[in-house]
Each structure stands twice: as structure tokens, then as C-alpha cells.
């Protein structure tokens, strides 16, 4: 007890209460840290407090919590290394400063921006496994008093517990994320894929899916190859009232026209050479449930009219039969092709397109939802570490940076293949950058390509064959190229393109006519 001789019984009782609260509440890291600082202010009787965490990349500190008269204003300010807090991190030691203005380590950045004058301060390292991950600052002790060693004793104990609590809370949050994935897998069953998502754009898309899943509307999912369109189709089914019924998948690009017709609609005995018995097609097998038609853009023209009839009347005949069969099946189609362009070229029926495109959903590429990269990478790491029987714990900091900076032209499929390859080639406990076998300079290369593209467009516009170099003509040429690019990214869905361009769909149609975009 010698360490606590200077502590009053009341303060010791408060510390025990804080300790109990810290180690029993892991669900909300932010709320936990606020509670720690509020308790610290109560213990030492001061005006303000803050918790700053260290940015590992450049050593600067950012406010995670800031309490007091100017706390809200201080939260967005970056604290440089050449400050009292920076000194605490660098030396992993506490400091008491009772005349802050005269201390050579003092940086007045926060004071100048908020107008709040710091007179006295005690700054304590928050450690995890001995390493300083942040700094707890208590500012301006009440009654114009200075901080003392008794304050330091109790706050050192509190900071130690706070570091452990932060680590526990962070581990809890990570475990909870993993459990959510596991829980989704269990609920979905072995026939469905786990769904891993953290980015706002995908979470917003799931909210849309929650609404459209309730209806029996036909849905067309568009997006680049490898973005996970099938997983979104599964989520629509799992969130619908058809969840207890079959969810069947058909890849329209995998079979010839004759085989695909039999696969979808079934056949009767003798319909063709190998038809030795009657066979139900996928439409009949999916009765009451959902049929997912992947690569719908590859559906042969001769089958498009038959599919249109099912969508309109819910009826069809098996191959070789005149008997009409009625079905109750929801259709979800997916493609990475530009169906509107295919319609204009005559390779896809316009009436079928409009029937399929009742409710379009566009899945963004992985490069536009960077928040999903690391959760997906860690999910694949756990899967392939188990398969390769290697005890990988995580990725190195450099590997994580490379994963986030890479352009991922092949989207989630490429990410999955990269992690599998890294597990085969790498050595535990951490996946290193070289194990990933990806071009970490891809982002800068892509930026250079983009810049080159702009310069090429500018050169082309500035030196036209017809000699027309007016600004109006140049702007129209750029508009044409840009609008075409946006339409390509949305599979020529004018409504989605309008949202990206920030204009109404009717104005998109008007621009298409004015600029003669086809």
C-alpha cells in the first residue's frame, strides 16, 4: 500500500469504481474514453481534459476526446510532434507543467485556434503492452492551483487501466465484427456466402435492399466483374418473405443455347437425343423462391422472348412439350455488360430490358469502397490460413497500406486470390507486402493514366480537324466524353447517371439528344 499512501479513501474508492466500469464496458470505445476523462477531471479537479491518439504513420496526434470549455473546437486540430504531448509519446513518460507558457516544449497551435489559454497541465502516457499509444492531458487545475505528485500517482494508475480497457474494447469490437460475419454465415446456411461490409456506400445499398426485398419486383444488379453481385442477390432473397424457399443460380454464359433452355425450362422425354426422361428446369425447381440469372447479357436472343413471357405471364412450356406450366418465382438478374447499349445495337431485346430493369441496383467497385478492403482481407486471411494450416495473425502495417493503396481492377475476386496466394507463400505470424504480389504503385500509376487521359482530351479538343476551337465546342466535346464515361459506369442507367452527375434523369435524356450520344 506504500504506493497509495498519499491517496485519500474517497479517491481510492472512486478509482475502484472507475476500474470496475472500465473493465466491464467494452461495447462502445468512445463512451468508455469519455467516461475515463470525466472521471480523471473529477479526481484531480481541473477545467479541461483530452485524450490524443498517436498517428503511427507521421507521429502526429489527434484528439479522440476533448472535454471542457473549448473541447468541441479542439477536436479537429492536429497536434504536432514538437509539443508537450509529443514529448510524452517520444519519451513514454509523464510530465507536470505548472507554468505552461514558459515551457519550451509547449506548442500554442491549439491555444491560438481555440482561444483557450493553458496555464497548468499534467500529461500522462496511455500504454498498451508498454508502448505509448496516446496521451491523457488534464489542463488548468481549479482554484489556480498547480498539479502535484498525488495527482500523478492516481492518474498513472488510471492511465494504465485505460490502456488495457482501450485494448480490450478494440479487441471486443474486432471480435464482434468477426462474430457478425460468422452469425450471418450460420443464419444463411451453407448454400450462401458470408457477407462482409463496412463501407457507408454498401451499408446504404443494404438499406435499399431491405426495402425492395419485401416486394416481388424484378431486380437488375449491375457492376464490374468481381464486385460480388451474387452476394447482393443472396441478401435480397434472405431478407425477403421467400427466404424459406429455394434460391437457385444459373450462369447464362456457361451453357450453350440448347442446354441453357433445358436448364431453365426443363424438357420432356424425347425432346432431343439425350432426353431419356422428363426433367424439371430451374424455374420449376425454384417455385415460391428466387432464381438468380447471372451474366444475363449473354442470354441468346432466341431465349430472351421465352424469358420475357415468364416475367410477364409467369408461364412457360418445357422443351418438347405443349403443356403450359405456371410458376411463382422472383427473378434477380445480374450483368457487367452495358445492356442499354446492347439494346441500341439490337443484341438485347428492349422489352426484356425494361422488364428486368424495374429496380436497378449498381454495386460499386472495390476501389470506391476502401473501407471494405481490410475487413474482407482479414476474412479471407482467416479462411485461407485455416486451409493452408498456417497460424497467420494479421497483416503487417506496410501490407495493410499496400492493400488500401492498390486499385483492385479485379475487385473482390482479385483480393481473394491475392490473400490466398499470400497465405501459400508467406510465413506466419504476419502477411508481408511482398507476399501479396500486387503492384503497390498501382494508385499512382492510375493517377498518371488519368492525368494523361485529360491531357490527351485537351490536345484533341485544342487541335480539331475542323478548326473549331471555340470554348462552346470544347465544352460540348468534354461533356460528351464525360457523360459517356458515367453512363458506362452505371451500365447506361440514366437514373443512376443523373444521381452521379447531380442532375435529373430528364436532363440526362435531353443531353443525350442534344449531344447526340448513342
Automatic annotation (TrEMBL):
Q: Name one GO biological process term.
A: regulation of DNA-templated transcription
Would you say which domain of life the source belongs to? Bacteria
Q: Where is the Sigma-54 factor interaction domain?
A: 195-424
Matching SUPFAM superfamilies, A to Z? GAF domain-like, Homeodomain-like, P-loop containing nucleoside triphosphate hydrolases
Q: Does the keyword ATP-binding apply?
A: yes
| Keywords from the named record | Activator, ATP-binding, DNA-binding, Nucleotide-binding, Transcription, Transcription regulation
| InterPro entries attached to this UniProt entry | AAA+_ATPase, AAA_lid_NorR, GAF, GAF-like_dom_sf, Homeodomain-like_sf, P-loop_NTPase, Sigma_54_int, Sigma_54_int_dom_ATP-bd_1
Keyword Disulfide bond: yes or no? no
Q: Which GO terms describe its molecular function?
A: ATP binding; DNA binding
- Gene3D superfamilies listed in its UniProt record: 1.10.8.60, 3.30.450.40, Homeodomain-like, P-loop containing nucleotide triphosphate hydrolases
Name of the protein in question: Nif-specific regulatory protein
Amino acid at each position: 500500500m506504500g504506493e497509495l499512501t498519499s491517496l485519500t479513501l474517497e479517491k481510492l474508492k472512486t478509482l475502484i469504481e472507475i476500474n470496475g466500469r472500465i473493465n466491464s464496458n467494452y461495447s462502445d470505445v468512445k463512451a468508455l474514453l469519455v467516461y475515463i476523462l470525466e472521471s480523471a477531471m473529477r479526481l484531480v479537479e481541473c477545467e479541461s481534459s483530452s485524450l490524443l491518439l498517436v498517428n503511427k504513420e507521421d507521429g502526429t496526434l489527434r484528439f479522440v476526446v476533448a472535454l471542457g470549455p473549448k473541447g468541441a473546437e479542439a477536436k479537429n486540430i492536429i497536434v504536432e510532434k514538437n509539443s508537450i504531448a509529443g514529448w510524452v509519446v517520444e519519451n513514454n513518460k509523464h510530465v507536470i507543467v505548472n507554468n505552461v507558457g514558459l515551457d519550451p516544449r509547449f506548442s500554442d497551435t491549439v491555444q491560438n485556434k481555440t482561444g483557450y489559454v493553458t496555464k497548468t497541465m499534467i500529461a500522462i502516457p496511455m500504454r498498451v503492452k508498454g508502448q505509448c499509444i496516446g496521451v491523457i492531458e488534464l489542463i488548468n487545475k481549479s482554484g489556480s492551483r498547480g498539479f502535484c505528485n498525488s495527482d500523478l500517482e492516481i492518474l498513472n494508475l488510471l492511465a494504465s487501466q485505460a490502456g488495457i480497457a482501450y485494448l480490450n474494447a478494440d479487441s471486443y469490437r474486432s471480435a464482434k465484427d468477426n462474430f457478425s460475419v460468422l452469425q450471418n454465415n450460420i443464419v444463411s446456411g451453407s448454400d450462401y456466402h458470408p457477407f462482409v461490409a463496412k463501407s457507408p456506400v454498401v451499408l446504404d445499398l443494404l438499406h435499399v435492399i431491405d426495402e425492395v426485398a419485401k416486394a416481388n419486383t424484378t431486380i437488375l444488379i449491375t457492376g464490374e466483374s468481381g464486385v460480388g453481385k451474387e452476394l447482393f442477390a443472396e441478401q435480397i432473397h434472405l431478407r425477403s418473405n421467400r427466404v424459406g424457399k429455394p434460391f437457385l443460380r444459373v450462369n447464362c454464359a456457361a451453357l450453350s443455347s440448347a442446354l441453357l433452355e433445358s436448364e431453365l425450362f426443363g424438357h420432356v422425354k424425347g425432346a432431343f437425343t439425350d432426353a431419356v426422361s422428363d426433367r424439371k428446369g430451374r424455374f420449376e425447381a425454384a417455385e415460391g423462391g428466387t432464381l438468380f440469372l447471372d451474366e444475363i447479357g449473354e442470354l441468346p436472343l432466341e431465349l430472351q422472348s421465352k424469358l420475357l413471357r415468364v416475367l410477364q405471364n409467369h408461364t412457360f412450356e418445357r422443351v418438347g412439350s405443349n403443356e403450359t406450366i405456371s410458376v411463382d418465382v422472383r427473378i434477380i438478374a445480374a450483368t457487367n455488360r452495358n445492356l442499354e447499349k446492347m439494346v441500341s445495337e439490337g443484341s438485347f431485346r428492349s422489352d426484356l430490358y425494361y422488364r428486368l430493369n424495374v429496380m436497378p441496383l449498381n454495386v460499386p467497385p472495390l476501389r470506391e469502397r476502401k473501407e471494405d478492403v481490410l475487413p474482407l482481407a482479414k476474412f479471407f486471411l482467416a479462411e485461407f490460413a485455416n486451409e493452408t494450416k498456417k497460424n497467420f495473425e494479421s497483416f503487417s502495417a506496410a501490407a495493410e497500406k499496400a492493400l488500401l493503396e492498390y486499385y483492385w481492377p479485379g475487385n473482390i475476386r482479385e483480393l481473394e486470390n491475392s490473400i490466398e496466394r499470400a497465405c501459400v507463400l508467406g510465413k506466419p505470424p504476419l502477411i508481408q507486402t511482398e507476399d501479396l504480389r500486387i503492384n503497390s504503385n498501382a494508385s499512382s500509376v492510375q493517377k498518371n493514366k488519368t492525368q494523361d487521359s485529360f491531357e490527351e482530351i485537351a490536345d484533341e479538343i485544342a487541335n480539331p480537324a475542323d478548326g473549331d476551337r471555340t470554348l462552346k465546342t470544347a465544352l460540348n466535346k468534354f461533356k460528351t466524353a464525360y457523360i459517356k464515361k458515367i453512363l458506362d459506369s452505371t451500365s447506361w442507367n440514366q437514373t443512376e447517371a443523373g444521381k452521379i452527375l447531380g442532375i435529373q434523369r430528364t436532363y440526362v435524356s435531353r443531353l443525350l439528344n442534344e449531344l447526340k450520344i448513342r
